[in-house]
Design brief:
Helix content: 55-70%
Shape: globular
Strand order of the largest sheet: 1-2-8-5-3
Bound molecules: protoporphyrin IX containing FE
Structural class: alpha+beta
Distance between the termini: 88 Å
Strand content: 5-15%
Number of strands: 12
Length: 510
């Protein structure tokens, strides 16, 4: 074959390949659009024409996965805000979108007003966590409890955690735990130039505190067993619910079984001791309260109810506090001006304490205005609980759009906290935006949620974090081994090295 003919054949082959690719792309596009349309029609047809027309903008995506791939892709690629941004780009800034996630038709809410409306409407919405999450936290915990039962058990358990007297009684233990932890880490780093996984250690520390409050403490073996299981439980919490060996969700279910076994053992021990007439020397803890609790008909809680409530509290009570403490410390250390201002406040408070007083009181902590701003800014900036779940019990209109009865609702606290219309320059860590006198508009600051399900541990969490930062600012410094370490956003934002760092003692008083 002549050279010219060879060239002609190659060009023809290229054209053919391009034509096949173009036809393939068109077919794929048509199939993709068709499947999405069909899925949308299948999910929405039962609503009828009139209600369908009132739905917010959005789309159901592919069957089974819906928007899950997009959600996981955004979070796993380190760009969590890309997920909601894609809805805004495609459907406008309506703040209300429809989609399909966690196997359910779902409405996403991203503005303060929309979130507030839903959070305050106990008649129109109940809790709506995905089934897979409920299976992990516990079907008899708050995440799946009927309204009246939730109110009763919340009242019983929340007051002993958050009130002034309760916090005052926990303060000495928190203080001792924080100071001994910091000392131990600094010692570990001093000898032979060691390092600590700061986040792992903080989670251990906050776990010790919550176990003391809920179980009156635990022996070392029980603590380790609980701690390990909670790590696995958490990693499975926002993963795809694939119950097959090797998947995070499968490991999390195993962890839940181990947690149930450990707590059942503690509960059996308590009941056996009571049956033998032993009275416990330590003060009443949450397990005692739950064992003793009776409803108006004299009914007591079953073991599985007590265990599910404890699994929920022990988890909620240490993960978030540990993470926020880590990020607040990192931000302080990375911002010398903020650090110095926060330290100066602590020094002034120390000078104001009468010599007769030993240790700080709750009132002293309430005087720490700037530290409180640092913590609020960390809560806003980090978005540890970036989303919350509800389900509509009737048709409700939000921003003029229909949320149909039975549909799931996701409240995107993260979007509220990074909205430049609410927080100018939102990607800047700036505690001064919380300066005294500034009170956020209702619904614009939701790190602990709002309404009937507002976090019952919010004051305890802030106290723990404040105690830690108080001692850290006055006596220690942190040097990260990998300051530019990649951040993983699921289940919570954390550096992948768990904040490997050197902790150094800088004051003789510590
Ligand atoms: C910085 C730390 C913490 C953060 C950011 C946080 C955040 C939250 C948020 C956003 C909710 C509401 C979820 C919703 O809207 O459905 C919540 C609920 C809850 N939190 Fe926390 N929390 C923290 C610490 C704690 C602590 C220390 C405890 C326990 C002592 C705790 C126990 C709970 C419980 C039991 C619920 C469920 C409340 C209910 O459904 O009635 N949390 N938390």
């Amino acid at each position: 074959m002549a050279v010219g003919e060879q060239g002609g054949a190659a060009v023809a082959a290229l054209w053919l390949a391009a034509a096949v690719a173009a036809v393939g792309a068109v077919v794929l596009f048509v199939v993709d659009a068709g499947v999405r349309r069909l899925h949308g029609w299948y999910r929405e047809a039962a609503l009828g024409e009139e209600r369908r027309a009132r739905l917010p903008p959005g789309e159901m995506g592919w069957p089974v996965v819906g928007a899950m791939w997009a959600f996981l892709r955004a979070f796993k690629s380190g760009k969590p805000d890309a997920f909601i941004a894609s809805f805004v780009r495609r459907f406008g800034r309506t703040g209300v979108y429809r989609t399909f996630m966690f196997s359910s038709p779902t409405i996403l809410l991203t503005t303060p007003e929309a979130c507030k409306q839903v959070l305050m409407d106990d008649d129109g919405f109940v809790t709506g966590w995905p089934k897979a999450t409920v299976a992990l936290i516990g079907p008899k915990s708050f995440v799946a409890m009927p309204y009246d039962e939730h109110r009763r058990l919340r009242k019983l358990t929340a007051a002993p955690i958050n009130g002034f007297d309760a916090l005052t009684s926990y303060l000495p233990f928190i203080d001792r735990t924080v100071t001994s932890s910091l000392r131990a880490w600094a010692d570990e780093c001093a000898d032979g130039g060691g390092e600590v996984a700061f986040l792992t250690e903080l989670r251990r520390m906050t776990f010790k505190i919550i176990v003391q409050i809920f179980l009156g403490g635990a022996d070392d073996a029980t603590m380790r067993a609980l701690e390990r299981s909670y790590t696995d439980l958490n990693y499975g919490m926002r993963a795809m619910a694939i119950n097959l060996p090797g998947f995070a969700y499968h490991r999390a279910l195993g962890a839940r079984r181990r947690l149930v076994a450990v707590l059942q053992g503690v509960l059996d021990g308590r009941r056996a001791a009571t049956a033998k007439g032993f009275t416990r020397s330590s003060s009443v803890d949450m397990m005692d309260r739950l064992i003793e609790a009776e409803d108006e008909h004299g009914r007591r809680l079953e073991d599985d109810e007590i265990i599910d409530i404890l699994i929920m509290y022990l988890n909620a009570g240490h993960e978030s506090s540990g993470h926020i403490t880590m990020w607040a410390t990192v931000f302080l250390q990375e911002n010398p001006e903020i650090f110095e201002k926060a330290k100066a406040e602590q020094e002034a408070i120390m000078r104001s304490i009468p010599p007769t007083q030993t240790g700080l009181t709750l009132r002293d902590f309430r005087k720490m205005e700037y530290l409180s701003q640092v913590i609020d800014e960390t809560l806003r900036f980090v978005n540890i609980s970036f989303v919350s779940f509800r389900q509509a019990t009737k048709d409700v209109f939000v921003n003029g759009y229909l949320i149909p009865k039975g549909w799931k609702v996701q409240l995107w606290y993260r979007s509220v906290h990074i909205d430049p219309q609410v927080y100018p320059d939102p990607k800047k860590f700036n505690p001064s935006r919380w300066e005294v006198g500034h009170s956020p508009r209702a619904g614009t600051f939701l790190p602990f949620g709002l309404g009937a399900r507002l976090c019952p541990g919010n004051d305890l969490a802030k106290l723990e974090i404040s105690v830690f930062l108080h001692h850290f600012l006055l006596g220690y410094r942190l040097k990260r081994t990998n300051p530019n370490c990649r951040v993983r956003f699921l289940p919570h934002p954390r550096p992948v090295d768990n904040c490997l760092a050197k902790i150094t003692r800088v004051s003789d008083e510590y």
